[in-house]
Each structure stands twice: as structure tokens, then as C-alpha cells.
């Protein structure tokens, strides 16, 4: 069989991909992974007992919405990288801008605080565990998103894996915020960002190996 005949045969059997199929796959990954992440948080750490009162404090919403924005941006980026020829474009700003804003808020807050209070704002009470708690809670969404990616066609596997890591990291940090007692902006700017970086790095490493065609 000649090459032209083989191409024609394969093309004759091709079927159109359902519209929004990629978005639906990652939405399903979130629908599967996010409840499991919430279960890990609730069973392993527990929800804050004063959560209702804490919801009236502006910094609680900063702590919750900051990683939620990272998760949304990761969702947009990963579903684009999962399709050949689709450009990410300005969606990368969705990851960079929240981090830069929290860094700026943390730095300004640290500068304005009394000198004897600055160390506590940076280290808090949970700096030793915060990073790994976020990474652990992100695992269910991380695994589900890699499975979704594996069934698609990313042409930049390392970047796609990193984007999946960003989506899962943001989701994991947002869920962890329902337990975390820390509210200082410098703490969030350092330890939450490091905690969310771990799944991104893991996604890039695993993506380069698992998502190759």
C-alpha cells in the first residue's frame, strides 16, 4: 500500500472530535479529584472550628481566592496545551498576576509591621508543615488531571504537566485554606507559593516522561 493510499484510508475513518471535549475532560477530573481533596483535608486535618467567624475577615478571602485564581488559570492553560496548535497566549498571566499581587501585599504588610512582629508574620505557626500539606491535598486533582492529559494530545508534555500541576496546586491550597490557621500576607506569599510550586515541578517532570506520544 502506498503512503497516499494509507493516508486516505486513515482520513476516511476520522471522526470529528466532540465540541468542548477537552474542557469536559478536565472538568470531570476536577469533579473527581476535588471532593477527594476535600475529604483528605477534612479527615487528615479538619476544618477550622471558627471558620464562620473567619469568613468575616478580608485576609481569609485573600487566602482562599488567591489559590483559586491559580487553579482557574491552570485549568484554562492545561486544556489549551492538551490540544495541538492551540496557543496559551495571555493565559499565563493568570498564574503570574495572583502570585505577584500576593508578593506585593506580603512585602508591604511586612514593611508596615512593627519590627518585633515581622518574624511571626513570616514563620507563623505552621511553616514546617504548610508546604507539604498543600502538596498532599493537591494529589487527587493532580492524578486526575494527568489521566485526562494522557488521553489527549499535548505537544509540549512538560509544560502541559506543569499546567496540570498548577491547577491541582491551586485547588489543593484553596481546600487547605479551610483548615489553615495562618492569615498573615507574608506567610501566604512565601509558604503557600512554595507549596503550590511543588505540584508544578512534579507535573513538569512527570509530564515530560508520561505524556510523550
Structure description:
- The structure is a single chain.
- This protein has 213 residues and is mostly helical.
- It has one domain.
- Helices cover 76% and strands 0% of the residues.
- The protein contains 9 helices and no strands.
Tags for this entry?
213 residues; mainly alpha
What is the strand and helix layout of this fold?
Layout: H1 3-12, H2 21-44, H3 51-54, H4 58-81, H5 93-112, H6 115-123, H7 127-150, H8 157-176, H9 185-210
Helix pairs in contact: 2-4, 2-7, 2-8, 4-5, 4-8, 5-9, 7-8, 7-9, 8-9
Helix content: over 70%
* N-to-C SSE string, H for helix and E for strand: HHHHHHHHH
Shape: globular
How much is the average pLDDT? 90
Query: What is the straight-line distance between the termini?
Result: 25 Å
Strand content: under 5%
Oligomer: single chain
The overall strand count is: 0
Estimated radius of gyration: 20 Å
- Biggest beta sheet summary: none
Count of runs of 4 or more consecutive helical residues: 9
The tally of domains stands at 1
Name the poorly predicted regions. Answer: none
Class computed from helices, strands and strand pairing: mainly alpha
